[in-house]
Design goal:
Elements lengths: L2 H19 L4 E3 L1 H9 L12 H17 L3 E4 L7 E5 L1 H6 L28 H13 L3
Antiparallel strand pairs: 1-3, 2-3
Helix pairs in contact: 1-2, 1-3, 2-3
Length: about 140
């Protein structure tokens, strides 16, 4: 399993959690994100990787999203989960549209993630994340 695969799945899960509670902060626990990310892969894909590595990659993904200004992360208490809030850049990246402002029910980026990614084939996740970051440049 490649680091980019973990990053893509973790980024989607973190953004999804943040969107669900927006504009309020949400608790982001890399350990729980890692468990969800593991669910996207077959068991034999984890034979060569330690679970702590996945947790570390999920934590790195959270901090990358914050450093790129998609999220504001508060982690001043090391013994508690981090809290995160989507920024305007994060909302724009997710292409969030409210029904009040847009009468047409066009499908935004986040519509693919309603209910999580489990419904999508794994290769679609990578393609969606590539499109997601292309749309920002």
């Amino acid at each position: 399993m490649r680091n980019l695969d973990i990053f893509n799945c973790a980024a989607v899960e973190i953004l999804y959690l943040s969107l669900e509670s927006c504009p309020s902060p949400t608790q982001i626990e890399p350990e729980k994100i890692a468990e969800t990310v593991k669910g996207y892969f077959l068991e034999n894909e984890f034979s060569d990787i330690n679970e702590s590595v996945i947790v570390e990659k999920c934590r790195d993904t959270l901090y990358w999203l914050a450093s790129e200004n998609y999220l504001v992360v508060n982690d001043e208490y090391l013994d508690e989960p981090s809290t995160a809030v989507l920024t305007q850049k994060g909302l724009n990246a997710l292409n969030v549209k409210t029904k009040l402002l847009d009468a047409t029910e066009s499908k935004g980026f986040t519509e693919h993630f309603k209910g999580g990614l489990v419904q999508l084939p794994f290769n679609a996740v990578s393609s969606l994340m590539v499109d997601f970051f292309k749309s920002l440049s």
